[in-house]
Amino acid sequence: MAKKLVSTLAAVITATTATSAIATDSMSFHLKAVVPVTCGVQYSSAGAAFAENVVRLGELREYCNAPGGYNLQVSYSPNSLRGVRLNFGNESVTLDGSGFATIPGAMGPKIQTRALSAQIGENGFDAREFQVVAIAN
Prior knowledge:
- Helices cover 18% and strands 43% of the residues.
- The protein is of the alpha+beta class.
- The strands form two sheets. Strands 1, 2, 3, 5, 6 and 8 form a six-stranded antiparallel sheet that branches. Strands 7-4-9 form a three-stranded antiparallel sheet, with no helix packed on it.
């Protein structure tokens, strides 16, 4: 009786192993990964200097994985910084005192570092701070 049970058990294990091997060869699965959109700006004051009416403020490291790219949004105190030109690498914007400005970032996902400088306007640099954030398109 024990011999019969052992041989029956061996046959079941062999059949199960063979079936599993066949099923593995024909199986498939669908994997979907969702990556959140992340955009940001890191500031480094490295290289800050003043020459004539241009102030080198340092560098911005921008990163964004949005498929449609991103823009930089500058916010500052309204009625200040009127006439100041902010330079972000090869891009620039002259601030109008509204408290808000937009600078092109990139047309697609990108990581880049750009020099940040300001050309002082007629009213000088009359704000204590301004903020730059990356916004996905």
